[in-house]
Amino acid sequence: MLxxxxxxxxxxxxxxxxxxxxxxxEGLPRDSLEEAERWYRRRVNQVxxxxxxxxxxxxxxxPRPRADAGNDVLSQVRAAADAxxxxxxxxxAMTTAEEARLRAALAAVPAHLRASxxxxxxxxxxxxxxxxxxxxxxxxxxxxxxxxxxxxDGDRESFAEFWFAVLAGKIRVxxxxxxxx
Length: 181
Fold this sequence. Notes:
By secondary structure, the protein is an all-alpha fold. The protein contains eight helices and no strands. Helix 1 (6-13) packs across helix 3.
């Protein structure tokens, strides 16, 4: 079995070939794409927020998902995110069309590229607002100063998949049948 090239691994992970070299120094397996993807998902934060990073740096420019120049899927996410963020910044809300375009672009991102998608926290909060509200309603209160729950790699991966599905509009809060409103 032939080992994949650095370029093939970069494409599978949605990173640059130079980043693959950096990750290899950190232990990224290069024997197969599957091993590389599994290692990458376990060690790279799946729900990164460029918005939080930019806020810490004192910058306000919209984040750009990392993508190779020819990666059309991530380019579509970037364009949709830029438009939605512009509306959110000026009017406080995305239009229905902008939200639909962004969700459709996110839904089109293949699993192996999802870790490359970076959205500002404002967009994440807007896209996930209904689900976040429901989660908070059932979340038990944690005493102040208590440690955060320990999350293993399998749980982290499941959480990442769940929240990406929420952002892509695949998981929505629907009114209960027969509920008044």
